DNA sequence: CTAGCACTCATTGTTCAACAAACATAGACG
DNA sequence: CGTCTATGTTTGTTGAACAATGAGTGCTAG
């Protein structure tokens, strides 16, 4: 399954890059030919992606790119609140991985200056993954990364990559600074507020786009 | 994949029932014959189980039942602390699913009276899954259920099903009662203490068994 | 006798071809 | 206009085949 892991990665890259649109049907034969693998191998990759929530499988109707509903968005933000805030709150005061958060903020600022909003989004995901990395738990990081990938599909679905990401760069920076100065507890409280705001904005975009 | 989901479930059942011992090698041809499916179908199921952490895959050496190390146990308890305590703390005061917790406690007591420790363990898993169900988040419940299944493999590994489970029945009951009387915050604090105790006991069993 | 090495064998990784089953579409019919 | 059947397409699953890798075996040389 060496080759296969690479296949999963290639598919994931195309998904979060927005090349495969949310809701789009993924034909086994077409994709198998495109990636030059057999149908069986592709199906194994699909199962992994399905387990990660990036792809939806309906029996006898094949797989499509996941298209998160508003209910899914709400669910995802519940996970984010519980995981991110709890991890940040109980993180030690000077965790080595804090530099990852700072690096993600700086990367986001750089890409924002270039108006490369897709990469800003990636950097934003990197920031929140960095937050969870303060837990020192591989399992938590893995599960959380999946949830964030799903959330990116939600962003892609309503096509709001630009203005939705911009304001959060500054807020991410604030969270790091508060963590540095006032400690994990205060940072967690602030993050909770920001997550609530973020959720409202995404749901607003859904409502505007007329999506369910 | 209708049939396949059932295959994943059948395999999972045998895993958490302890019929397939942690570390045991799982031959593709043998299991394919036993479950009367083709090798390809079995491999797809293996991928799902691998993604869930129940099974370990090493390239060209096949899959074996996961055999959690002490590092894994520590990791799992980190997840449990963050998820369970956070969910309980922020749960509404009278969540409908609280009855699930109570039901799980009663089931555990019933099986304990029969000295059926395997089922006591299952009921214990049910209790903690019920706690997480207070989050109303499918994703959190799904990920958490996987982590708990892995933990059960850890229990099976050191063959301590009996005395390790018994004391927690009473503690689970206490958590519910505190939740009912003093509210979610107090219950979460108590649960945190109990999780710490539980982790120490499991790690102690690992040390006694001479496992890594 | 033992260390090292080539070799054999079993198992996994991957592909292909085939068929059954379910779904979707189109056309016939009332 | 709506419903039903017929056809075609896609998925679900199987079995066989072959390459690639690992593991164990036995041989040879020292």
UniProtKB/TrEMBL annotation, chains A, B:
<keyword id="KW-0804">Transcription</keyword>
<dbReference type="InterPro" id="IPR036388">
    <property type="entry name" value="WH-like_DNA-bd_sf"/>
</dbReference>
<protein>
    <submittedName>
        <fullName>GntR family transcriptional regulator</fullName>
    </submittedName>
</protein>
<feature type="domain" description="HTH gntR-type">
    <location>
        <begin position="1"/>
        <end position="68"/>
    </location>
</feature>
<dbReference type="InterPro" id="IPR000524">
    <property type="entry name" value="Tscrpt_reg_HTH_GntR"/>
</dbReference>
<keyword id="KW-0805">Transcription regulation</keyword>
<keyword id="KW-0238">DNA-binding</keyword>
<dbReference type="InterPro" id="IPR036390">
    <property type="entry name" value="WH_DNA-bd_sf"/>
</dbReference>
<dbReference type="Pfam" id="PF00392">
    <property type="entry name" value="GntR"/>
</dbReference>
<dbReference type="Pfam" id="PF07729">
    <property type="entry name" value="FCD"/>
</dbReference>
<dbReference type="InterPro" id="IPR008920">
    <property type="entry name" value="TF_FadR/GntR_C"/>
</dbReference>
<dbReference type="InterPro" id="IPR011711">
    <property type="entry name" value="GntR_C"/>
</dbReference>
